Prior knowledge:
The complex is a heterodimer of chains A (504) and B (530). Helix content of chain A is 35%, strand content 18%. Chain A has an 8-stranded mixed β-sheet, sandwiched between helices. A 5-stranded parallel β-sheet of chain A has the order 8-2-1-12-18, covered by helices on one side. Chain A has a 3-stranded antiparallel β-sheet with strand order 9-10-11, with no helix packed on it. Chain A is an alpha/beta fold and 504 residues long. Chain B is α/β, with parallel strands linked by helices. Chain B is 35% helix and 19% strand. Chain B has 17 helices and 20 strands. In chain B, the strands form 5 sheets. In chain B, strands 1, 2, 11, 12, 13, 14 and 20 form a 7-stranded mixed β-sheet that branches. Chain B has a 7-stranded mixed β-sheet with strand order 7-6-16-17-18-15-19, with helices on both faces. In chain B, strands 3-4 form a two-stranded antiparallel ribbon. The longest helix of chain B has 25 residues, at 117-141. The A-B interface holds A 136-137, 154-155, 162-163, 166-171, 175, 179, 200, 203-206, 299, 302-303, 305-306, 308, 345, 348-349, 352, 355-356, 453-455, 459-460, 463-465 and B 148-149, 151, 171-172, 174-175, 178-179, 181-183, 187, 190-191, 212, 215-218, 324, 326, 364, 367, 371, 374-375, 476-478, 483, 487-488.
Amino acid sequence: MALVLGADIEGLAAAATLARAGRSVHVIDARIHAGGVAARLPFADGYSAPGLLNECALIRRSLLVDLGLERHGLSWHPKETAIHVMQDGAPPIRIHGERVDGVESADAEIYRDWRAFLDRIATFVRHVIDSAPPEVDEPGLTDLLELARQGYRLRSLGDKDMMELLRIVTLPAWDWMGEQFSSDALKAGLVAPVLTGTVVGPRAAGTTAMMLMRETTRGVGPVGGLASLVDALVRRCEELGVTFRFGQAPASILIDPQERRVRGVLCGGEELEAELVISALDPARTLLDLVEPGLLPHHVEGELKGWRARGDTAIQLIACSTAPEFGGDNDRDSIDRMFTARSLDDLERAADALKYRALPEEPCLDVRIWRGDRDAPAGGATLVVHVHGVSHGGSVGWDDGARSLLRDRIGMKLEQDCPGIRDSIVGDLLLTPCDLDDQFNLPGGHLHRGEQALDQLWLQRPSIALSQYSTPIAGLFLAGAGSHPGGPYLGGAGVLGARRALNS
Amino acid sequence: MAAATSYDAIVVGGGHNGLTCAAYLAKAGRRVLVLERRHVVGGAAVSEEIYPGFTYSVCSYVVSLLRPWIIRDLELARFGLEMIPLESSFLPLPDGRSMCRWSDSARTMDEVSQFSRHDAEMMPEFSHAMSKIGRFVRPIIDSPAPLPTSLKPAELVGLLKLGRHFQDANVDMMELRMKLLTMSAVDFLDEWFESEVLKAPMAVSGIIGTFLGVRSPGTAYVLLHHYMGEIDGAFRSWGFARGGTGGVSNAIANSARHFGAEIRTEAGVRQILVKGGRATGVVLENGDEIYAKQVVSGCDPRLTFLGFVGSEHLPDEFVTAISRYRFRGSSGKVNLALDALPEFTCRPGDEHLRGDIAIAPGIDYLERAYDDAKYGTFSRRPYINIVIPSTVDSTIAPPGKHVMSCFVQYAPYDITEGPENWPAKREAFGDTVIDTIEEYVPNIRDLILHRQVLTPWDIEQEFGLTEGNIFHGELTLDQLAFQRPTSGWARYRTPVKNLWLAGSGAHPGGGIMGSPGALCARAMLGAKGD
């Protein structure tokens, strides 16, 4: 018997991968249904959000392909979702894969060269994202081979691209973008998506690395949003005989102290026996809260205590009786996702608020618009609004005053780019990082169970000793968003973690 | 043209690295000429009597990184170098409390435990870990940067040596080091300590000379860069040079002269002559041409290549790389002549004034200071690092009087009004610094006999440091090691044959270290003539 803790996308992907290999699998989740933040969330009469995450372009399709989810109702958009960036006194610019519209011709040309560079390094980056990080403490033959393979792929980029990649990988996005483009809106539109999940602004080192990862791996999203991916995963799991236990959080992981081997999980006063436990919960909660103290080596505990998962984003779901027309009449029907930041400085100022645990004066919004009859009545729309720069607590102290202040500031920003929108709002739901923590079991209120930062990626996600999904406890594995590739690279950690467990 | 090649090497710029390079070359028997634009040698490591009777360490004010092997090789003690260790590190707080870290660790633990027992208990372990990491990093700053992507046997041997060095430590140490490269100073210190009173003054080491905040990723490395300081083998010990920081430069200059180098001051270079892709000499500001087999620049990369050489003599890609190389000076300096020793309200007396004094009362304070700079103005309440070297060195001020040196961050070079408008804001900047100090020393204004204010613009104009960056370019990960100043050219050579780079814009970077100059000389002496 294999137990999977957590039924979010990673947990479901892990469960399906294990079941497909013939294991009998039982999934435990404290919530009453599967999907976590990716599940469909009804929030007003006739309105729902097909998942809370706005970034649907980074699903690891290449790793999920073996699960055959398309047979269970999953389909993919034919084209990538375009990103619109609002401007003052000019129509929004539109970033759409290989093209950008609405900027000066010089910028459009530089953008093409820039994309060409990204295309050249894409194979290398994708390989890193879609493979388990090699063991570097005591590397075995396969680890050395994998390191050599990745080294070889890096070398094959040629001197020029390789050195450029090494140069920029630690650069702040602010500097990298400054070297390339002159349009403030273009720079903001390219950087804004990677700030969710970080506590920093564009001036922080490492933001370029996040951009490189995103720009070389993004693709089309699932039709119907992440909720459709969740639905397909649940159906596939059920077909494979996976059983679920909802509404009960695991109380502890049972371990044989002599052999340091997992025995099962204590849940709802019941001992569930298992030879494999795969946790999609965050690494610190799994190993520090659920494992009895003293069973882990001292240095592993130390590393986990340093694991950072500070919430950075609040989400407001907004029900609009009529679909909003952002940026005037221009291209209005095609706007599916838009950003309100005009410049990198706007994004930086919003992120500054995190440092002081205060509310951003001028929030920067990432708005996903869901039209149609599934998530809103005909003619209406559901808006999923992400606000970067909002912390879990601190001086904000989430009372009603703070909530209504944040709502007002979001409303003012929306009104700026879509005059009259406030009159069409018929309902809303505000989820602060505090709410995400309480309602979605996300410690710190962090959407990805661990900040995206250079020292928390790849070999260091969640730490050098734990980045190969296995733990010092035999039979206990990590396969959540706090493991590589983690974050918004949905499904990757679940599949790679489960594969590692199967090979052990 | 018989006299044309009478010098084996010309060193452009008589800063401490240029002088170090010259001394090593002269010691190896080369005929060397050092050309310095100002009337004194030392560059930013200089002592000057700006106000009668008071000697300021005008720019650089403490010495920590000067390599012991250079002190030995160049016999600097014999040539007048005398180091006086800093005895303490004092943090006054606006609420009347204060903390002082002493060279005596038991005493420090006592002070720290007033704020946090936990932190006091962590200190020995922290010091142990940092010195362990420091030992790991030291070979990196004492040898040329290995190129991690090369397949050449010599490079691989260098990498293997480093690899073995890596292996000598256990697992968590390795994690620590990887983290150190990419973390913010605050995140790193958060893993050890709880009290801001300890963390804030420690974290500032991570931002000195960079345009980053203490919460910016990558600053943990800069923190380590400053932790590598050693005087006579003692770790994390900073010191003053007797007679001011110029004492270091003067000792190196004396050593260079002893070995036969010729040093000319008030001999500014206008141009580095390039013929057929080779450096052949220099043109002085007065129009004189001097020829040499080799030319070494102790100046920063932008001044050297885009100022003295000219982009027409350089490959386009190299010009792009040098244009992208970031300076962004972020600090200024206020030097004061004082009528008497200042008294801090929170801790009267003078015992704690013989080391450095940090105005860094909290992490948020430091971040707000950075925020001001990000949006184009100097900090309304800056981080200030104060030293009063006259408390331990009687040669720099009249009896009973004192010299107070204030390093101030942030003062961004690129203010909203444009850097050329800094002179109009100079005195306002100086007033802000004094206002800040006044919150801790209420009568400071009554004590001031003379005040010298240096903005980043002044530092650029007077000392030739591009954009006022004290390290010849930011110490960020993309500008360190094999990428300093740019990948492919981190071994002191340049795309122009016979032209070498020996300043802080070369590996291992800034601070009064001497390594770039010494390693450049070593590379030149080992190079086959061409």
